[in-house]
Specification:
Helix content is 38%, strand content 21%. By secondary structure, it is α/β, with parallel strands linked by helices. The protein folds into 3 domains: 165 residues, FAD/NAD(P)-binding domain (3-Layer(bba) Sandwich), CATH 3.50.50; 119 residues, no CATH class; 120 residues, Polyamine Oxidase, Chain A, domain 2, CATH 3.90.660. The two termini are 19 Å apart.
Amino acid sequence: MRIGVIGGGIAGLTAAALAQRHGHEVTVYEASREWGGCAGKFERGDYLFPAGATLGMGFEPGGLHDRVLRHLEETVPVRPLQEVMAVHLLDRTVVYDQDRDRFLRELENKFPSEANHVRAFMKEMWRDFETLRPLFERLPALPFRSRQDVFVAVEGLNPQLVAVAPKLYRPLQKTLARHQLSGTVFEQFIDGILLDSLQTGAKDASHLLAAVALSIYHEGAFYVEGGLYQLAHALERALRRDGGTALLGRHITSIEPVSDGWLLTDRRGRLDIVDTVVSAIPLEATSQLLTGKDAKSFKRQYRRHLSRSQWGTFSLYITLPEHVCLNRPLFQQVYTEHLPSGHAFLSMSAGGDVLRTDKPERTVTVSTHVDLSEWKDWKQRAVYEKLEHEWTERLIEAVRIGFPGWSGHTNLMLPGGPGAWVKYTKRPNGAVGGYAQTPRQSLFHAASYRTNLPDFFVCGDTVFPGAGTIGAMTSGLHVARALGVTL
């Protein structure tokens, strides 16, 4: 079967590499000049920056990335992290330890007045995750769209799941209130953790997905040498080694049905015919490639999802002198009142990571969520530059908090607003991360990887299960299963 995969991010490359190994004839079309999408990289002079954070999960034995990479006979260089990150609140710093018991003691020490409530809350989250673990390991696809989807889910069922069924549509705010933690500094602490992983804060997040998000670091957290783009490169290597084709700079502009499959046309007018299409770009971007009744059918199926809002991100890429970075955590989350979302995430290169730089410096990626409505006029140069300056100053303040010994000197500082994500990763309007994982927008209300169009699949962060490299790879795996792959 000839398969055309549009988009060379983690989701598309996962589906492509697995399908090629299964015996299909796969071609990946990536519009940019880099693999990885939002988990890609870029270079400036002697420095390499991951486009996003470099905190890796799923590389532990039995983790999703580990399972896929072993199946493809590939590896990614990672270092396990005992201390996952430091979270700087306004009046205290919490060390997020990979070990559950140490982390729980840290929470009790840093939130002494709510210690009993915090312990009970975390125990409930972890208990619910353990109940969900069989499903998490089997990775069923929601919402159900085929017998295979139902079979994978049912086979992973256990009697304990009955206990969490009533929480399927529970927002986390109810759980916080029941544990008397609403409005506390502890809620502020988990708010940032969930915003990064579920694209929504603590109050609106799905209880069950929050249980996963607040447990996943304890499964294993890793520093990826160079950055998470290494995962994309490993998938692309496996694809090519098995005979697949991977094309950079091939921007597909239309998808049309023809008598013997689907016709793909790129911006230079080059044509390819494939039997099956896998669109690994956002749903909004996919809908723009289709025409006529196919576009209407696609938009009708995903109308609720296409109407949902998404976050954007503003990033600052900066170099810091080595002495400023010594004994500082590789990953930090900083709370500051200067940021509308309340927090920024700082990701620093490890000492000795010569893939990032061989100078006595570190490269740091700083990012925060932004409301895209504020950037609606970003195509006007003066407006964009003003916003860029304002947001740069806000993130510089976050850097000062994370690196208190920094004098302000840097050899390189590059801002990256929504326009950069449009230009370099082709994200519509600069939206990243997919949809907020609220009870009414996640799980059975998420977007399916199976479309109503024949031999046409979708995957990526706007498709179930959502954001992050684990979510993206999972959606790619769902497509691969539909193409006959077993893992």
